[in-house]
């Protein structure tokens, strides 16, 4: 058993998303795939989204805990508005797109947790 003390500000951008994303779980040595969970911090400016696309998962549950600002999560059932110190949990099979609207006044900072980390994301196209 080991311990990992990580300063998020020391982490590099995790991938090529528009939003700033830092992978705490990768820094702790958890593989991107098949780990018990994934843990990332996102900072999205107005007009940016957290995931790469509107999507859903077969097995993975995702939780978005808002640290600062307001996160908007588009779903087929409507939009959730998640303020600081609130969390939205998305069960497998439920399409969602977490974003900071273009007309937002400030960035949003959120902690995203996904479990398990499996490659099961599918794109979702909302009906016109």
Automatic annotation (TrEMBL):
Residues 42-113 form the Cupin type-2 domain. It comes from the Archaea. InterPro entries: Cupin_2 (IPR013096), GPI/OXD (IPR051610), RmlC-like_jellyroll (IPR014710), RmlC_Cupin_sf (IPR011051). This is Cupin domain-containing protein. One of its GO terms (molecular function) is metal ion binding. Keywords: Metal-binding. Gene3D superfamilies: Jelly Rolls. It comes from Natronomonas salsuginis.
């Amino acid at each position: 058993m080991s311990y990992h003390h990580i300063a998020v500000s020391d982490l590099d951008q995790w991938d090529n998303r528009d939003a700033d994303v830092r992978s705490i779980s990768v820094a702790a040595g958890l593989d991107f795939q098949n780990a018990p969970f994934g843990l990332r911090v996102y900072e999205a400016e107005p007009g940016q989204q957290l995931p790469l696309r509107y999507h859903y998962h077969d097995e993975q549950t995702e939780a978005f805990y808002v640290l600062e600002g307001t996160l908007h999560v588009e779903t087929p059932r409507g939009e959730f508005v998640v303020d600081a110190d609130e969390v939205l949990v998305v069960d497998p099979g439920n399409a969602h797109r977490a974003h900071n609207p273009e007309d937002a006044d400030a960035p949003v900072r959120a902690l995203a947790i996904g479990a398990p980390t499996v490659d099961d994301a599918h794109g979702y196209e909302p009906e016109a």
